[in-house]
From TrEMBL:
Cited Pfam families: SSF (PF00474)
Membrane-crossing residue ranges in chain numbering: 6-24, 74-92, 123-148, 160-180, 192-214, 234-254, 275-301, 321-346, 367-387, 399-418, 425-444, 450-469
Principal place of residence: membrane
Name of this protein: Sodium/proline symporter
A Gene Ontology BP annotation from the UniProt entry: proline transport
Length: 490
């Protein structure tokens, strides 16, 4: 155990070193550099970072738990999400990148506010959007720190409470120091380790079971779960509700601020096609392999107290201490990748709110200092939420993921693709996304998140039709301009 802990400690020091590097260079002297890397990130870093930033505690904890309990039923979510990722890169990315540069927006909340021409509505949008970021990102950050605590407790042998504190402090420190560049390049480093862990672990577990054929036979023989059934043994109304829940959960992909920031930061919209291929390949891997880990864990370990910890237990069981330490670092890196991106998004929105509405004369130095302070406070808040543990990692992430998608994704899509969309409709969409996500979860939990999307769609379309004649206008999407792409810049 001492060797494993030493390996993991060295890994954490590497992450801090990356943050220190960008802190001591000129990359964080201006706000646009600190928060968005000056919109100058190449194809590979953007693609790998984008995948790493959404891998999170979801992939190696929540999604492994899904594989353990319902097996291939989770593919409804996986397949839907892959199609949405293709749509986002193919149709949304270029238009969003172009309009973002035209408006000078740094985050999605910033973008929606700046896109509306009416000053009063723009202010309301920024207020509600910033509140939504705090609600959903706060929950998301807490879920990641819970996952860090579980990983270090189960795998590394560090007490859960101490692990939560250590993980939260490390991610807060390197993000505070290095900003978006630190987030991007730690994500690239971590993404490579994630790939190694995702490929290696299920192969060893399936070999332990007896090979692929034996694995399929054993999975089919599990008495109390239809692990190989896409419908999880359900039929009729129950099957329909379960399937719709997975599909509508995946719709949240359209509005994840930490992913959208990477579309804003890419060097040129022409880099998006290459980034899309890389991202879809990595996403396909992370959305399917953890299900196999969970299913193999069900066969090897049978009933366990916490299905979400199966991957951690398996790594310790199947690898020598040094390798286990590296792979545990890879999994925890996935969690930290999401945490740093979320901290940066929330910090960006609060900083922009301060700059736009409280002190327009504030210098970049003051704003960066404020941004770093916000990251520190949010990291502490995430640690506090991890101590409280209001639900499983899956439950917390599902709420945050859907909430972000409905609150920001739908208004953005209407803004980019429907010219009649008004400022009033954008504001109504953000408010409805926030309210319906919370309301659906707490008032009709059995149908969460199925009710969120139709209600948000009805409100945005309805308000647009009512206010189309004299409502507040929104910014146009600029036409694409020819840009030379140098492959060496990637």
């Amino acid at each position: 155990m001492a060797t494993l802990q030493l390996t993991f400690g060295v890994y954490l020091l590497i992450l801090l070193a990356i943050g220190l590097y960008f802190y001591f260079t000129t990359e964080t002297q201006r706000l646009s550099e600190y928060l968005l890397a000056d919109r100058d990130v190449g194809t590979w870093p953007i693609a790998i970072s984008e995948v790493s930033s959404v891998a999170s505690g979801w992939t190696f904890f929540a999604w492994v738990g899904v594989g353990f309990t319902v097996g291939l039923n989770g593919l409804w979510f996986s397949v839907t999400m892959i199609f949405i990722i293709v749509f986002m890169y193919r149709y949304v990315g270029s238009r969003f990148r172009r309009q973002s540069e035209s408006l000078g927006s740094i985050t999605i909340a910033d973008h929606l506010s700046l896109a509306v021409e009416d000053e009063r509505l723009s202010f309301y949008i920024r207020v509600v959007a910033t509140l939504s970021i705090l609600v959903f990102m706060g929950a998301y950050i807490g879920a990641q720190i819970i996952a860090v605590g579980e990983a270090m407790d189960t795998g590394v042998g560090i007490d859960y409470l101490a692990a939560v504190a250590v993980g939260g402090v490390v991610v807060g420190l390197y993000t505070t120091l290095g900003g978006f560049n630190a987030s991007i390049w730690t994500d690239v480093f971590q993404g490579i380790l994630i790939f190694v862990a995702a490929v290696t672990l299920p192969v060893l577990m399936i070999m332990e079971v007896g090979g692929w054929s034996v694995f399929l036979s054993e999975a089919a023989a599990v008495d109390d779960a239809a692990l190989l059934d896409l419908n999880a043994g359900l039929a009729g109304q129950a099957m329909l509700i379960a399937t719709l829940a997975w599909v509508t959960f995946a719709f949240g992909t359209i509005g994840q601020p930490h992913s959208l920031m990477r579309l804003q930061a890419i060097r040129s919209e022409r880099h998006l096609s290459g980034a899309a291929v890389i991202a879809v390949a990595f996403q396909s891997l992370r959305l399917t392999v953890p299900l196999l880990i969970g299913m193999a864990g069900r066969i090897i370990y049978g009933s366990v107290e916490d299905p979400e910890s199966v991957a951690m237990v398996a790594i310790v069981d199947f690898f020598p201490a040094v390798i286990a330490g590296i792979l545990l670092a890879a999994i925890i890196s996935a969690i930290l990748s999401t945490s740093d991106s979320m901290l940066l998004v929330a910090s960006s929105d609060l900083t922009r709110f301060y700059e736009e509405r409280i002190d327009p004369e504030a210098s970049d130095t003051e704003l960066i200092l404020l941004g770093r302070g916000v990251i520190g406070v949010l990291a502490i808040g995430g640690i506090a939420l991890a101590f409280l543990r209001p639900g499983t990692i899956f439950e917390i992430i599902e709420f945050a993921y859907v909430g972000l998608g409905a609150t920001f994704g739908l208004p953005l899509l209407f803004l980019l693709f429907w010219e009649r969309t008004t400022g009033e409709a954008v504001l109504a969409g953000i408010i409805t996304g926030l309210v319906t996500s919370i309301g659906n979860l707490y008032l009709v939990p059995d149908l969460f998140p199925i009710l969120v999307w139709p209600l948000c769609l009805i409100v945005i379309v309805g308000v647009t039709l009512v206010t189309a004649a004299d409502g507040a206008g929104v910014a146009d999407v600029p036409e694409p301009t020819p840009q030379r792409v140098d492959p060496a810049d990637d």
